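Example 3.2
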Amino acid sequence: MNLATQAGLYLHVPFCRQKCPYCSFYSFAPTTRDLPRFVDAVRLQMRQMAELPEVQALSFATVFFGGGTPSLIPPEVSAVLLADMRRLFSLGSEEPEITIEVNPGTINASGLQQLRAAGFNRISIGVQSLGDGELRQLGRIHTGEEAVAFITAARRAGFDNLSFDLMYGLPGQTVTGWRETLDRALTLAPVHLSMYELTVEAGTPFFIQEAEKRWVLPPEEAILAMMDASEIAVGRNGLLRYEISNYAQPGRECRHNCNYWRNGSYLGFGPGAVSAFGGGRRASVADLDKFCRSLADGRPVWDEVERLDREAAFRETVIMGLRLLAGVSITALRQRFEIDLPLYYGQTLGYLLDQHLLALQGDRLFLTRKGLPLANRVMAELV
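Structure, written as tokens:
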């Protein structure tokens, strides 16, 4: 596999109508002057990065506008930013996958049509739940019915490659309640579905609420039952699990995220975005004011370049690749890093195989059905 052909472009939009209490990403409610400052700075950052020799050697296959809430940017502005990317960076001969994340209640039907006309061909909708009580608790600004109507509007706008997100393991959620949410979601016929267990991150309002015992998360056995229910339900609807949290119709897997999981190259634009290319990883400062000032002064927007040594990069590639159900190729890893995986991990690998958490078939190492819900523990052994 030629990783250069798998490079991706990512734009982090740090704006949200309001901050969700579980979110730990850099985002905030913008003022009227924040949007034009952000757009001008990002356009300048793209021009500067396009001049780097390591970047000019890359070919890009995917574009992803994420956040935050990218649909808070006017569609005509998103169109300009996408046009800049097409002009400045070498997109491959195949039609690139161009995704934008949107939230119900932040863009109307006309705006969706504008995005499709601008060249966005994949849409990822932040539904999270179809239950109004759960949505209120999660701090979302839409109702379940509004989410359903929004999905219909996205299809009418021409988005046939349509994904949406759901969350499970919510405070007070039962296995029965999750099944009802999932069954209703599947009637909407997504071609891609991302399902994430709620993780309470330090520093978020949810972290404080949990510490104060305002609510209780479902027990582990209920979480495992929700995972089982998810796999059964999506399997009946033609979606195949291809990553720990992601399901898709064959051929509709998210190519942009697959590049991350294969530890490929990508450029990140915007405050808080990460780039990985030329053997180094660079994280932009997660502060809009500092981000804009650095670019205006001609200074880098990242403080330092992290360079992993060969073994650390090998371990990271193994751990990330095991998120995919196809796992990792021992031959490809040996060619890329000149490291033999079975020999490198030795007894640790033997233990994980004996416990039936990992399986080794031919050239590929992958998580077993038993290992999937215990993925974090498996990864910790391989770090």
